[in-house]
Design goal:
There is one protein chain. The protein contains seven helices and five strands; from the N terminus they run H-E-E-E-E-H-H-H-H-H-H-E. It is α+β, with helices and mostly antiparallel strands and 143 residues long. The protein has one domain. It has a five-stranded mixed sheet with strand order 1-2-3-4-5. A hairpin with a 3-residue loop joins strand 1 and strand 2. It is globular and about 45 Å long.
Length: 143
């Protein structure tokens, strides 16, 4: 599996914080940060598929899949930081910075104090490390 950009964890937390993830038994609908798109995430055992660009075309867990894994408790996240992510429009931030995720994250973090930034960054890194170890397979289509 390709390496997931760290920014996808930030985007996943925004989806959870803004209540843009609707979970069902074997699938979820995840709305984009500008609410203009919706993505379907489906799973069977440890196989996951989604129609978001990152998951479908790039072959790594996009933020919709990561949000689902978090809500399934396969990846932990710090609930203490969720409020920082509410209603963040990552689509606009990423477009503004021409898909330079590091610059988008930097602008997002500038909204908060140094102490809050450290809490956010350390929490995200913990989730990201768990994501790298989670036993799932990204597929284009479930069998």
């Amino acid at each position: 599996m390709k390496k997931v950009p760290l920014a996808k964890v930030y985007e996943a937390l925004s989806a959870i914080s803004s209540k843009r993830v609707i979970m069902n038994d074997t699938e979820a609908i995840v709305y984009s940060s500008d609410n203009k798109k919706q993505y379907k995430v489906q799973w069977l055992d440890n196989k996951y598929t989604s129609n978001d660009n990152a998951t479908y075309w790039q072959g790594y867990s996009g933020y919709p899949v990561i949000a689902v894994l978090m809500l399934q408790k396969k990846i932990s996240y710090n609930e203490e930081i969720l409020s920082f992510f509410k209603d963040i429009n990552w689509h606009d931030l990423n477009t503004k910075h021409k898909r330079n995720y590091e610059k988008a994250i930097k602008e997002f973090l500038e909204l908060y104090s140094t102490e809050e930034q450290n809490l956010i960054v350390n929490s995200i890194l913990k989730s990201y490390q768990e994501l790298e170890k989670v036993d799932i397979q990204i597929v284009r289509k479930l069998d």
